[in-house]
């Protein structure tokens, strides 16, 4: 299985257009050791030709330009993207769909009913696409059942619901439903290799360890280092866990969690621009290194 990181940053990217935090300012000025990152997305292939896009970042056009296998190669209008899986309906995971409106072939979109509802009501991206390429919606059941993406051979996917809130524009923003956010176990059928992917993960619920134990690679939420990172910087009033992102440090944090799965390559993804792990010479990055935990970057390839 070939996993390619298209965008490793959380919403806003790194640097974020309006942010002068230590990291964003330092990256612009060249005074910190770090590289820029676009917003959250990966693609996965079981044959090296046909790809499943996970989420559609606002930066998707740039991401496609930088990864040749997704570019047209076989016809006057073509793409290496066979289908798109959306793990939630957040802006940073869906708005790139509008950038993929060209063509007469419908976009094949795999998402839960909850995400489909949000993307046809509060943020009706899929209705809008109906006036351009059109959409085939494939419903994902977030109950541990398995699905495949037509045209992307040798891969199967198991989706489970994760505790989380729907986006601010959702008609059920304050009334969480299973399927607002999912985690996915991606399996390459021929090799049996598996990757657990959950860029938004606030809590390790009881149904998750059994899935993470099977994984050869675990790519999880790397948004924040501490639970109060955004509060401490005066940027937000909510804690990391309250917005569905388990921080890396501290009791019950992602480092502790990942230490329970030494069998897997462990990679943090969806990293917020405020996070000190983005600085390659930071003490926090050294701590991750000691635990053998990697920090995803744009263009990272993982071959399982
Ligand atoms: C999140 O990951 O919590 C959201 O994408 C936040 C946002 O909309 O930027
Ligand atoms: Mn996000
Ligand atoms: Zn910043």
Strand line-up across the major sheet: 6-5-4-3-2-1-14
* Amount of helix: 10-25%
**Could you say how many structural domains there are in total?**
1
Cα distance spanning the termini: 5 Å
Number of strands: 14
> Quick one: CATH superfamily?
Ribonuclease Z/Hydroxyacylglutathione hydrolase-like
Sheet with the most strands, sense and barrel status: 7 strands, mixed
- CATH C-level: Alpha Beta
Q: Which molecules are bound besides the chains?
A: D-malate, manganese (II) ion, zinc ion
Q: What do you see in this structure?
A:
- It is a single chain.
- It contains 9 helices and 14 strands.
- It has about 300 residues and is of the alpha/beta class.
- β2 and β3 form a beta hairpin.
- The protein has one domain: Ribonuclease Z/Hydroxyacylglutathione hydrolase-like (Metallo-beta-lactamase, Chain A), CATH 3.60.15.10.
- The structure holds D-malate, manganese (II) ion and zinc ion.
- Manganese (II) ion binds near residues 10 and 11.
Q: Layout of SSEs?
A:
Layout: E1 2-7, H1 22-29, E2 41-45, E3 51-54, H2 60-65, E4 81-85, H3 91-94, E5 107-111, H4 113-118, H5 125-129, E6 135-139, E7 143-147, E8 155-161, E9 182-188, E10 194-198, H6 209-213, E11 217-221, H7 229-232, H8 254-258, E12 265-269, H9 283-290, E13 293-295, E14 301-303
Parallel strand pairs: 3-4, 4-5, 5-6, 10-11, 11-12, 12-13
Antiparallel strand pairs: 1-2, 1-14, 2-3, 7-8, 8-9, 9-10
D-malate (MLT) binds next to helix 3.
What's the short version?
This protein has a single domain, classed as Metallo-beta-lactamase, Chain A (4-Layer Sandwich).
